Amino acid sequence: MTVVNALDIGLAALVLALAAWTVAAREAFAAAVGYVAYGLLLSLVWVRLFAVDVALTEAAIGSGVTGVLLIRAAARLRGATPALDEPLAPPLRFLAGVLCAMVAGALAATVLLMPDPAPTLAPQAVGNLPSTGLGNAVTAVLISYRAFDTMLEKVVLVLAVVGVWSLAPDACWGGSPGAPRPARPEAALAFLAQVLPPLGIVVGIHIFWVGADEPGGAFQGGAILAAMWMITMMAGLTEAPPVSSTRLRLVLVSGPAVFLAIGLAGVVIAGGFLAYPSGSAKPLILFIEAFMTLTIAATLPMLVAGPPEQPPQP
Amino acid sequence: MTGAAVLAALAHAAGSFGPGLLAAAVGTPVAILAACAISRGRRRSPALMVLAPLPALAAALLAGFGAPFSYKSRAFDVTLALDAPGAMLLGAAALLWIGAAFYAGADGRGGDGDGRFRASWLLTLMGSLGVFVASDLLTFFLAFALVSLPAYGLIIADDNASRRAGAVYMAFTVAGETLLLMGFVLLAAGEPNGSLQIRDVVAALPGSPWGGAALALVVAGFVMKIGLAPLHGWMPLAYTAAPLPAAAVLSGAAVKAGVIGLIRFLPFSHALPAWGEGLAILGLFSAFYGVALGITQTNPKTILAYSSVSQMGVIAAVAGMGLASGDLRAPLDTAFYAAHHVLVKGALFLAIGACAAAGARRHWLAFLPAAALALSLAGLPFTGGALAKLAVKGTLGSGAIGALASFSAAGTTLLMLHFLFRLARNPSPDRGARTSGQLLSAWFAMALASILAPWLLFPLTGGHLSDALTPAALRESLWPMLPGAALALPLWRWGGRLPHPPAGDIVVIGEKIIRASYGAGAALERVEAGIRQWPAAAMALLGIAIILGAAMATGF
Amino acid sequence: MQAITTALTATMGGLLLALAIILPVAGVLLSFVLGGRAAERIALYLMPAGLGVAAMIALGVWRSGAPLVYLLGGWPPPLGIALRADGFSAVMLLTTALVILCAGLFARANFPTPAGVNEARAPFAFWILLQGLWAALNMVFLGGDLFNLYVALELLTFAAVPLVCLDGRAETLLAALRYLVFALFGSVLYLLGAALLYGAYGTLDIGLLSSRISASPAVWAAAALMTTGLLAKTALFPLHLWLPPAHANAPAAASAILSALVVKASFFITVRLWFDVLPSLPVETPAAILATLGSLAILFGSVLALRQERLKLLIAYSTVAQIGYLFLMFPLAAGLHPWTADAWSGGVLQTLSHAFAKAAMFLAAGLVAETLGHDRISGLRGLGKVMPMSVFVLGLGGLSLMGLPPSGGFTAKWLLLMASVRSGQWPWAIVMLAGGLLAGGYVYRVLAPAFASADLSLKAPAPRNRERIALALALCAILLGFAPSGFFAFLQIGRPALTAIP
Amino acid sequence: MNTASLAGITGALLVGLGLFGLVTNPRPLRKLLAFNLLGSGVFLLFGVLARRGAAAGIAADPVPQAMVITGIVVAFSATALAVALLLRLFEETGRSTLRADPPSKAAGDGSGA
Amino acid sequence: MSAALDLLTIVAILAGLFFFLAGTVGLLRFPDPLSRLHALTKADNLGLGLIVVGLLPRAGGLLGVLKLVAVWFLVLLASATVAQLIAGAIRRKGSST
Asked: Which of A99, A107, A113 to mutate to test the interface with B (most CBs of B within 10 A)?
């Protein structure tokens, strides 16, 4: 028990050290790299908290895709003139430190002083599982009990895509985003991009599929599929599709659209918006999740790719 | 006998037509404004502007000679009511608005291309009529705002002087509205049953925990409106800058919003000696201050403006003495005095244009009635002014304040003679004044109305016309004029040696203070620029979180 | 617990609440796929429909005299999410529908898809973001779950930020970036607070929380963090750094919605938090802190507005000031006293009338800028001659901002002043009066040159039809000043009633 | 000290570190990194609360877990939008800064529409 | 039998940890990027392999074994690619200066 405890403490110390490095590093690029490592370690903490679904999401999206995004940005911003950004004067830094420490201290105390036994919805969530036909309570929360949140969060993704695209120069509208790849395709990367995706696609679909009963689901599976697409784009094997492509747009909205449609159908067949008829809940949920996986797999790379940067090809 | 029958018939008519007339009185100007949105209405607008006050005049006649009546809107929380003091002022104001609109039309204003003047005129008119009939707090406040704010559009023109006058006017107006708003809120809060009727809140005023503050704020708000010294700074500037018909209605009718305010909101049923005498002293100070500053001016419009400062002082003194003694007749007497001022002051402004327009040969035709009116203001026997002085004599009492008030007639005489002197000498500074029959007839009509109307209205105050004609009364109204007339000679001779303070005198100091406050504004701007820096704002964010949390945890 | 669960059952007509959100969401998705011209058409067709739904919700609340509730998926809280519409929600929904409709009609001229192309960037983004904004606002006004409200807030931010920088100028990009980062800062604090509340009570449903809440460190920390996060999004002084540049540089239709509605959304959640979640705690001091910040906002916002040289910046700073008024409601409407109903009505009315007045003013200012080619205040001399209707709109809006009758702003001020007098909280009354004076000053600064008669050179003819849209909004602000007493009773629906008013 | 408490303290410290970075670092990209750090700290606290709510045979309350998953996706989209804005700003101006310029007083032209 | 397997587990994991340690020391102490990269990739891949071998007996079934091997394979693939990319980047940077 003490060994585990020591390991926990070591893990926590590592996570905090990396976090501090991310804040303190001089170079933005180094900080971004540090952040990726931090995210991976953090997903171990999530495993230690028995939240494997979150651990997968954190590793795939929180650390992985976000990391790619930030590293790419840091690389692009290397030429930025730093002249205007003088750092904060030391007394102010100290004041900021004190304020942050006060907030952190109060938070820690609050969390440690939480009531025992902790209130929980686990019994209700588990108790209602049979009516959803699912085995994974987290998936049940996401797609059934709090389906509304999940559907709207997909709309958030669509709006984020619109927002990112809206930053394109007018002339580039309808064109393709600049692919997230280095100037010269690397042979090694190309090799990886050829070997990995078949495996990755199988794993991604597997994770989505088992998500009904075990850790996994649309988010995690979709993120892995997204990673495969991003690798092939980075390696120069595929091009990002033009933003005017109807097929791309259909894929991007298919998740929330199917969700919304089935939710509306619920008004007629199950007596309420986002309600599922008992008996056929599980197939419907899997149907929705399939499209959500697809949407996530397409949305994450498009968000990383950024706004269109090339004029549309005739 | 027939008089009683006529009165009964009038009372009956008041009961059946009155409420509708009240709504029409207030609604007509805005209806005309709406009609001017279409071009056909715009072309007829000068005529429509003359007609706009007619329903108000009819309502005033019904209520004045018949019986009071009221109107309550079902759709809005608006109540209107007309009693004798209100009717007196409403009628006089409506007459003046009609005459001035006639004059303005002759002057070529408010036509198709002059939307600003027309809209300002009609909105001010609506407020000016509205204050006399509003019977609940919110309606009164609305009407008061209407009679005050749109008048800005009547004052300004394209020169710097008028822009300055407009700015000063707006500053005073908005400040006055603010005082009044807070006063009204206190009045309403002090009414235990939640009624917003002016009658109820004023009745509850003496017992209200906020009574003193409410009274002080309300009086301060109205005092700013009637321009008592030292809060008079806007008045000379605005009346000098405004075109003549506008100056006429502003000085005659619009200012009476403050007078009706005093009449309606001072709790005359309770004797409040300290408050009343304080107001009276302020009024008398203003009465003499206006004269003192007025005789240093050369522009007839400015002189008339200072005369208003002085006359409003007398009115405030009357209202104050009424409050001091708890005299329930004071409202009617004050209203009568004010109604006389409505007509005479309005007519005198028109006289400036009429005299300038009349060729030198027929100058006397325009000048003689003006002289009569000017001296009427000082209380010349056989004029309406004498009646007005007589009406308020009882309220003013025979003490020091009463004596001083009578003696103020000497100042008025001096000031009016000075005015007539400048009127005879000075061509009108008003560029718009042109020779026109319509213009002259407007002036004659107004002058006639000003002379006749007080004689018709005087019986309503409970006085007898014969009282005004007794030798004692004649003597009493004449004697204060003599020292004034005597002083006029040296003024005539050596007046040029007097200092010439700028119109609006102490307002210059106020403007300096405001300019100095720009520095404070710049300092605030610098502070704000600092706060808008990211680290400052972000730290403020954390600070607020910590303070809020601490405040909740310590449970203060 | 049992009693509460039964109280949280769906009411008749509850599906309308879901529909109010589904409509714009469906619009977003459809527009995204069909793109181009279709997006504009979809938005403009959906807006009247949305207005109808909002009106039906208001009617439903009015008829039943109690909040409408809808349980999504049939799952009752705490496991599921409930939508809830009380009087305040209903009027906010209506206001949103009206303002968005007007802004949409107004924006048709700014964001048409040019002939000859299938789709252009700005129109595509604008019409989708507009519907996204609308969906998010409706979610905020209907949400009964604090986490769901978090998602709504994020949706709102994501829709609002790109609108600020649609023209792609560096200035607007910077404004948008500052807005985004600060808003994210705010929402993460909000989420942190929500997490603590969940940890302490096992639910984030507002109704359930209000009955369970008690004084505990978790509640204190949660309230402080959530409130601060929301204040950052509301741009309450001194957290307003992002507002003036963002609101002043956005396209006019977007500015109107941002100032009129978007900042009100986070304010609305703040109100929910303090009046629906936390009212059982002693809240005097925090409420006084909020009102103090509000007072500072009034002072600084008004003075800064007085000192601006551009019309849109002046109006944006006026928003900073007017937001301050909203927070004066907290100490005045807290608890159950004879004056709290007045204060509540006043606060809500201030929210509504500012929404209409400010939307109208931003639209008018946008037209002025389009017509003159600039919006420098010093260059507005003679505006009244060429654009009388726009000047009239600015004047009507200014009337409401100053709190002069007849306007919603006046009635709101009257009610708040009454409450502050009757509760003995004088400082807020003085602040309100001083704010009115300063507002008079900056409104005067705009109107005085407009009244002057100088010759202005126009870049484009004044668009009368679009001026009428702004006028309609301004008239709404004025009409609120004539609200009958039934309207105030409506605003109280869903509020705890003071049974015996002494 | 059990794992949940330890993770709770870690989460609180992460929040502190993230806040510090967000407040003090002048570079927007670093602010975004700090924002993600802050976010992950908040999510971790959520996770701790979920872990404390272990019951009914599962090791952590699923509801907060689901919220965290939603939150992670939202935080990612936010980062993506911010990065896109930042890069566009960099292209336009050649600099990346969040410094408050005084709301440009001179630039009154073309601000409409 | 089980004792032998346990022993294998312990020995293999300890050996794996040793290689990780060695790799980390190399990362920290070697003078130039290429040798650091060398230390890291070589030692870590071997270390991970040893740990996987150590865990094999405890995998509980063929599927588990396959998963562990797949993990090792994927890591090998990834680290080989990344090492290539980094080395390429270093070379370009070096040649440009």
From this structure: A99
